[in-house]
């Protein structure tokens, strides 16, 4: 039986700061340890899109990086919107989170239209929001990471945030205590860090959703006892890192 899972790393050349590539490594490793065979695809400007994609991971970037990819991004907008509404799990960090919204008006006044997967808009300000970020999410518990952005994001009415910032950090805009957004199986967030090594609950949500969509259920039947022990060890490392950070 095939156990392949196709992961797309979106614009890794231009949208990958503050360790966001660690999210791809984490998903790859955890899938292997669950007994699946991850295939990592990279999509940069002008590349071909593969035939099949089970999960999409996108990182953050400077305003200049966002401007660089934008025309190519528009060419992929319909595809990304369709995959999002089909329920493909996606994790979009910071710069790509902003571009999955309705628009990002940068601090120099340039307006970059987003692809509207997430009902949210972002406006750049002079003061950057930088530092550790801790939030509470109903689905994932405490989520920990690091933020560095000038854009203030405001969610439209009825859009579910990923979590509430009550301890540390600014979150979407430094005003309403929301952080990130969740639309269908798309997660948008300001959490760099990397996010996934420290927050296994989110990794496992992305993995179980991707595997279940492709194969009907998530089974660990191909997992060896060594692989199970390694997952337990990674979860313990994450738990310790979370204790230190909290
Ligand atoms: N350029 C965007 C901003 O500053 C996103 C930054 C990021 O991805 N960390 O708001």
Automatic annotation (TrEMBL):
UniProt-annotated catalytic positions: 94 (nucleophile), 192
Keyword terms of this UniProt record: Cell shape, Cell wall biogenesis/degradation, Glutamine amidotransferase, Hydrolase, Ligase, Peptidoglycan synthesis, Transferase
Matching Pfam families: GATase_3 (PF07685)
Pathway: Cell wall biogenesis; peptidoglycan biosynthesis
A Gene Ontology biological process term: cobalamin biosynthetic process
CDD domains: GATase1_CobQ
Subunit structure: Forms a heterodimer with MurT.
Name this polypeptide is given: Lipid II isoglutaminyl synthase (glutamine-hydrolyzing) subunit GatD
